[in-house]
Every structure is written in structure tokens, then in C-alpha cells.
Amino acid sequence: MTTPLAHDRYCDEILAQAEKFRALPATGADPGARVPTCPDWTLEDLVRHVGRALRWTEHIVRTRATAEIPMDQVPGVEGPEERGDADALARWLEESASVVAGALRAAGPDAYAWSWAGRHDAGFWARRMCHELVVHGADAALAAGRAPEPVAPDVAADALEEWLEIVRFVQRALPDGPAKDLRAPGRTIHLHATDTDPALNAEWVIELPDEGITWRRGHEKATVALRGPLTSVLLVLYRRLPLDTPEVQVLGDRAVLEFWLEKASFG
């Protein structure tokens, strides 16, 4: 499988992002704190969700699964028995990241592994778990009362583009989901990172035709533009930061961007 970043780069970033979770107890983060961007969850719920995703992925990759594996068949997926122990949660998550990174490295990007997206290889999972940790790391920071840390530009750009791919996938695969309505012929969205090396070409133009969303890299006039630091642009698209966050600018028809944020969802 070809992915924008090297397979080992994803594995390294999985470990690096997990280390940020590992540091949460030292900041005095309360496991019972509500996650403002996932209001049905506490910080502990969030960590357990991420850890389960990592353990599930490790099992799929290690066993070269040919079909979806029920979560209750995955070893180590339960996490710490006692709730409220921030240190135990952080250690479990760190261990979960370590085992999935090990399984991904051992498999290599082209090894067969079932996925929900129809791309059945370990490379898909390396990329997906990397960005799962990036976005939920922002959730964890916000729950702990801190601003999300900037993400490495190559990782943030890839996370943004992967999200566009996911939105296009769910638009086609879930005809009854909200993304089915993400159609506005003639309307365009320009995403413009203002803090990256020009060589990264961290600008995107998204179109919303009836056939489903498309995008391309480049600087073009659009119906609406979202400008700001790349990590902030990414987190706005993921609805982790609001459109009126001070770090970003919205230029043009804001309603088009609000429409995108409403409909670009799994439901």
C-alpha cells in the first residue's frame, strides 16, 4: 500500500502521541473530567476508547484477520480493572501503543489485514491509528484544561487529507448518513495553512458536486476560506476547535463551512 508518510513514520508517531497521554497524570488531569469535544465521555472513557482501538487494531494486524473481529475477543482490551486510576490508565495506553506499533512494524505496510474501509492492509491501520491518537490527543488536552499541542506538519497535513478521504468514503458507503447531503454544486472551500514550509503545499480546495466531494492541493479563490496554523485548521475540520477560535480566520461565505462541519460526519 502507498501512503503519504512512511510506514515507520506512522509507527513512531503512534508512540509519540501515546506518550502525551502518558504525561497526563503528571499534569493533575482528573480521569472523571468531562471531555468538552466528546461530551458523553469522561477523560477516562476517552483513554479507554483509544486503548481499545489500539488493542483491536493490533489483533487484526497480528492475526492477519480476514473479517471484523468482535471487540470481546481481543486480549487486553478491557484496560485497568479499577476506574479512576490515572497512572494505570496511562500505562495501559502506552503499552497498547507499543504492542500495536510492534505488530505494524512486524507486518509491514502491505500485509493483509481486514479494515472497515475496504483497504485491507496494515498500512491502512498504521495511518488510521496515528491520526486516531492525534485527534483524541487534542480531546484529552482540552479535557485537562490545556490547549492542544501543535502536530508535526507532515502528520497534520496527512491527517487532514485522510479525513477528507474518510468523509468521501462514508458519503458513498453510508447512504443514510449525514454526509449523503454534503452536496453543494458550485460551492468550494479553501483550506490554507499559514505556518508551514511552502514545499509542503498545505492548501486544499474542496468541491461539493452532486457526485460526491473532491479536493486538490493548491491556492485558489473559493466560496469560503479557512486560514490559520495547520494544526488549528485540522482541529476545526474535526470539530475539536470552533470556527471562531482566535487562531483561524474564516473569509467568505461562512455558511458553506458551517454546512460542511454539520454534514461531514459518521452520524
UniProtKB/TrEMBL annotation:
Coiled coil: none annotated. GO terms for molecular function: metal ion binding. Pfam families: MDMPI_C, MDMPI_N. One of its GO terms (cellular component) is plasma membrane. InterPro entries: DinB/YfiT-like, Maleyloyr_isom, MDMPI_C-term_domain, MDMPI_metal-binding. It comes from the Bacteria. NCBIfam families: maleylpyruvate isomerase family mycothiol-dependent enzyme. PANTHER family: CONSERVED PROTEIN. This is Maleylpyruvate isomerase family mycothiol-dependent enzyme. It comes from Streptomyces griseoviridis.
